[in-house]
Predict the 3D structure of the following.
Amino acid sequence: MNPDFTVRAASRVYIASAMELLPRLVEGRRVVVVTDATIDRLYQELLSPYEKILIGRGETIKTLQTVEQIIRRLVALGADRECFLLAVGGGIISDITGFVASIYMRGVRFGFISTTLLGQVDASVGGKNGVNLDGYKNMVGCFTQPEFVICDPAMLRTLPEREFRAGMAEVIKATIIADEPMFRRLEGATIEELRRDHELLAAAVRSAVRVKVEIVERDEREAGDRRLLNLGHTLAHAIEKCSPAMIHGEAVAVGTVAIADVAVRQGWFSASERDRVRAVIERLGLPTEPPVAMQKLVKEMGKDKKSSGGTIHLVVPRTIGRCEVRQIEKEQLAALFMAH
Ligand code: GLY
């Protein structure tokens, strides 16, 4: 079966049924699945032929300790360099497993089945792997492309409503970066329609994956254009640090509205387009207001460990479907984000 997308000539992305595809993709290989107990239960039929390593859930397990635990289990299983690691789950599981596969015995082959909307439209595609350190996100990791990624929209049926909405924030983000026709299609959609209408959901997933693949093709290592994928993320990361109650996609929704406001105040983006961005996010039941004072978030944004020196890369919308990266002084953050 032909993949829907190929990334860096190394990684195939399929938007298709995992049940039909997986046995063909791993035929004749020793597969070790990394997943959690809930996913293992939900997809028993799909995963029963393979050996498994079960890990916990949530951002708190995305650590070097979990990496070490998985590696020790691989050693105990006698997994050699020919084994194939298959992550089944959301972005946390794929980020950890991709990192383990990149360093275990100096690297083994690996692939993902992405079971969350956030994973399908962002985390699983593009080759970023890694874990957090001391509360700082993705401080340890590498770029290694998985051999394949399967995004099966039918798997999203079991996704809790809140997680589904949060994943849609990344889809909206992708359309603002580079897919105005899909943005327009989503303006007319409700969350219920997206959950019910397989064709619409598959089109939304395909749009976000296409936007990401095209950018990663140009800039795998995030030296330039890949930064565009961080639209809404500068504020989102600060929100996640200050308010653990908000999940990633919700923080991205708030961050996207906030940067649209910044862009309007600076004369970079029209107020009418900003209103459309806010409306589509509200319509999907996502938050648009920061959960803590902007002053606190501005301070947190300035602490970003991955920024270069006194400046920060900020992604700003110019029109729906086109964004640009601006390098700004950290001292300007307060003036930009706080309305006067
Ligand atoms: N999540 C943004 C990226 O993969 O570059």
Residues 122, 126, 128, 226, 229 surround glycine (CB under 6 Å). DSSP finds 15 helices and eleven strands in the chain. The chain has a mean pLDDT of 96.
